Amino acid sequence: MTQMPPLAVYAQRLGDDALILGQRLSEWCGHAPALEVDLSLANLALDLIGQATHFLGLAGAVEGKGRDADALAFGRDAMDFSNCLLVEQPNGDFAQTVARQFLFAHYQELLLTGLATSKHERMAAIAAKSVKEVAYHCKLASDWLVRLGDGTEESRARMIAGLDWMWRFVDELFLMDDIDRDCLRLGFGVDKAALRRPWDQRVEAVLSEAMLQAPAVRRGVAGGREGHHSEHLGHLLSEMQFLQRAYPGASW
Amino acid sequence: MSVPVAGAIDRIRSVLAGVPDPEIPVVSVLDLGIVREISDDHVTITPTYTGCPATFAIERMIRTALDGAGFGELRLETILAPAWSTDWITDEGREKLRAYGIAPPPMGSGAAALKNQAPAECPRCGSSNTQEISRFGSTPCKALWRCKSCAEPFDRFKCH
What we know:
The complex is a heterodimer. Chain A is 66% helix and 0% strand. Chain A is mostly helical. Chain B is α/β, with parallel strands linked by helices. Chain B folds into 2 domains: 8-78, 2-Layer Sandwich (GMP Synthetase, Chain A, domain 3); 90-157, no CATH class. Chain B contains 4 helices and 7 strands; from the N terminus they run H-E-E-H-E-H-E-H-E-E-E. The longest helix of chain B has 15 residues, at 54-68.
């Protein structure tokens, strides 16, 4: 699908995950259930878009064809995006957004902790910086998961439904393909499959505090890394990329 | 064309001491620990949060201040590692934050501080009878707190 070197693809995937989730979260701006939540979600979005800028900048630099983070963010179509399916899922209600954030943030914290010791200096620097921000995301998402899960009948039902929606996209997070194996061999990447067990333990601990159970195991869905996305990504991109598509290179 | 060496670093330092943070103008880029290195041919800075919009403004302001003071030849470099920490905020910077109404961050950043968050000291009345309202505030670096003694809300610089 792509001619980019493995490290560039690897960095692009990290950037795409952060970018798409950041864009999703920013849809909440002005719509969250309370002012404090609005501020929180906007702050998370800002962190993620900042991380995306760094990772996509790295991808462009490794590729060496003059594409910067903006070119990668605004100049690619859905099939060229390599984010996981979880992050592109619609916000739904607040509980559904919390479910997505909870599942992703714990994965991201484990992943970035591993990448912080990458042999690739710039990769390690971005990861070490980002993981400090993601620690706050984990805490926020976990707090809300407990508050909603162990809350009212209504909030609990919504939290269960939110987890139910998002759970099928979890397996994809930990899949290893040729790109992952190449980067792991070079000492640049992380063994994502090995993160599954610690992730399960962390998630399980919070779920039990929230008086919730993991949804029943079902067949996971994957394909985002190869550009096979759900219908939701195209709609997200049409909004995110509109300006640069209509007025290429516009700046202010 | 090179920068005159005698006292150059001190003069660069005093230029930088006059560059405020765009969001919290009482503290300078030196107070915040953003400036990592000053030499006679370059200045190295590091961003606070990856997505902080002030990062770009800070870079521009530093460049403009250096150019205006005759240091147009100095290179301005940005590094990511080691990652910026609130532990790098100077004592003077902490005092300025407090006087401005922002509780300074506790020392010893990282996960441990996240889990075991001691109450912030109210920057207005000094009480420790305070409560976190929202872990995220008006900028990436601040959380929103409330003092239960004087009943005033206040910002607390997040431990990072």
